[in-house]
Amino acid sequence: MTYDSSLSFIFMNTTRVVFGSGSSKDVREEVRALGCARAVIVTDSVLATRTDVPGRIEKTLGDSCVGVFSDVVPDSGVHIVDAGAAFARERGADCIVSVGGGSAIDTAKGIAIVLKEGGSLRDYEGFQVLKRPATPHVAIPTTAGTGSEVTYVAVIKDHEAHQKLLFGDYNIIPNTALLDPDLTVGLPPLLTAATGMDAMSHAVEAIHSQQNEPIADGLSLHAIRLIREFLPRAVADGKDLVARGQMLIASNMAGAAFSNAQVGLVHAIAHTVGARYGIHHGLANSIVMPHVVRFNAVEVAATYRPVAAALGVAVDGLSDEACAELVAERLAALAAKTGLPLTLSSQGVPESALEELAEATLADASIIYNGRTVLGAEELLEVYRAAF
Question: Is 29 exposed, middle or buried, given 0-12, 13-18 or 19+ CB atoms closer than 10 A?
């Protein structure tokens, strides 16, 4: 992709990233490097009760750990964040260590806000609300998908309103990320696939965003290459540490890319259906992504040519429109190869709800950056019907 001489952009990636098998054993030193001495671990109930991962991190932290908050659930809620902040405050915590997937890391971002600023997380909804850095945060992802360990965004559900709230602020980017492939080995195949396709959606959407730029494009394109090659391997053999490690890198790169270039309609739809029907975020992204590609290609087909090449398509001699169609087909094929469902109807979304969902999607902030400007709910309804 080329850019004209008038281009201007800002790229930020402030997180210290430490990669390697066993790198999570450095957590005590990383906490101390931040000038902290009293860390609370934030993790989810499944990891805490069915694995020894949080316990291993607690043991490594030693007397630097003052508590483990393990009440995080998928689609974590504002009430959970507020409870976690109260838990950390009672223990005099000066640092948060998140252990888990996107829900745990996003919850920890919210806790870091409330622990520093007080009140309820609802008080800080929106973008660039904070005036100072949140509580220091070391993120240890156990899934390869969200890239939340390097992003400035947290998505937290308001369970009463059945709505996902966005918190975007450079002051909540984790200070340090420890990418340890050993901690992802126990992730089941379907969750490996869903989180991997989440990373793919970040990379693809960052490239055709209205805020795309060359550094983010470079990160996105290499992430796509890595996911294409290593996601099927990670799903087929969860103990393949090479594949697990490369997926962590891909997720991290895609996270840094979309944190700068933003996402678009895929995420706007996924946020909407996820909030109402409890569909896993990565799976929702995976289902709708091919259909959004076709929708966007009407106006921005050229942005999918490099994506097609990264997905292994021989693009020479093909039109931009043909490249875009092949991107849609390859993405659906990759999802199918990894065992993921391909329709919204398979996830319990009723056809009678599509019009309401299309209307609700217009209110999601991610839609602002979509490569093709969305003019109304009627256009979105076409995408919903195609994905249904």
Answer: exposed
Across the chain, the runs of DSSP E, i.e. the strands, are 16-19, 39-44, 65-72, 95-100, 126-127, 137-141, 153-158, 163-168, 176-179
pLDDT confidence of 161, banded at 50, 70, 90?
confident
- How distant is the alpha carbon of residue 321 from its chain centre? 28
Q: Do residues 246 and 223 lie in contact, with contact meaning Cβ atoms separated by under 8 Å?
A: no
pLDDT tens for 125-157 read 999 999 999 999 999 999 999 999 999 999 898
Reduced to 3 DSSP states, what percent helix, strand and coil does the chain have, rounded to the nearest 5? 60, 10, 30
For residue 297, give the nearest of 276, 322, 262, 260 by alpha carbon: 322
Whole-angstrom CA distances from 169 to 66, 132, 242, 269 are 27, 10, 33, 22
Domains of the chain, CATH where assigned = 16-184 (3.40.50.1970), 189-387 (1.20.1090.10)
- The amino acid at residue 26 is D
The DSSP string of 144-158 is SS--GGG-SEEEEEE
- pLDDT at position 158, please? 84
Q: What is the pLDDT of residues 222-234, one digit of tens each?
A: 999 999 999 999 9
**What is the phi-psi region of residue 312: left when phi exceeds 0, alpha when psi lies from -120 to 50, beta otherwise?**
left
Helices (H), 102-177: 102-117
- Give the span between the Cα atoms of 231 and 241, in whole angstroms: 12
